[in-house]
């Protein structure tokens, strides 16, 4: 397992599991996390990513937009983004904003 400031990475046969270690994804944590994700995408963008958002309680509209940009970048490199373990409130935000129509999104398991 590899660790970054706000991310923990775990290699798995089905792809790269990325665990977010930040409950509040508004700035500054959200901006720092976005920077880490895009830097990681430069090296590992060709893989399928499972971004685990368990424990995330707050996020900004900017972070939501950044996730869509990240998915686009991963797809261009041959990868794909899946969001996992969203709490019901965060999932509702994704659903209302129709992100669930664009990304593979799953509630807490």
What does this structure look like?
This protein has 109 residues and is an alpha/beta fold. The protein has a single domain, classed as Transcription Regulator spoIIAA, CATH 3.30.750.24. It is 38% helix and 31% strand. Strands 1-2-3-5-7-8 form a 6-stranded mixed sheet. α1 runs parallel beside α2. The longest helix has 16 residues. The chain is globular and about 30 Å long. 25% of the residues are buried. The mean pLDDT is 93.
Summarize the model shown:
The protein has 109 residues and is α/β, with parallel strands linked by helices. It has helices at residues 29-44, 61-76, 88-96, and strands spanning 2-3, 7-12, 15-20, 24-25, 48-52, 58-59, 80-86, 104-107. The protein has one domain: STAS domain (Transcription Regulator spoIIAA, 2-Layer Sandwich).
């Amino acid at each position: 397992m590899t660790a970054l400031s706000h991310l923990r990475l775990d290699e798995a046969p089905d792809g790269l599991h990325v665990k977010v270690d930040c409950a509040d994804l508004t700035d500054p944590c959200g901006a720092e996390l976005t920077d880490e994700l895009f830097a990681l995408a430069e090296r590992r963008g060709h893989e399928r990513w499972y971004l685990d958002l368990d424990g995330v309680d707050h996020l900004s509209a900017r972070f939501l937009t950044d996730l869509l940009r990240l998915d686009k970048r991963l797809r261009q490199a041959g990868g794909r983004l899946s969001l996992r373990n969203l709490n019901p409130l965060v999932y509702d935000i994704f659903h209302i904003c129709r992100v669930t129509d664009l990304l593979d999104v799953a509630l807490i398991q």
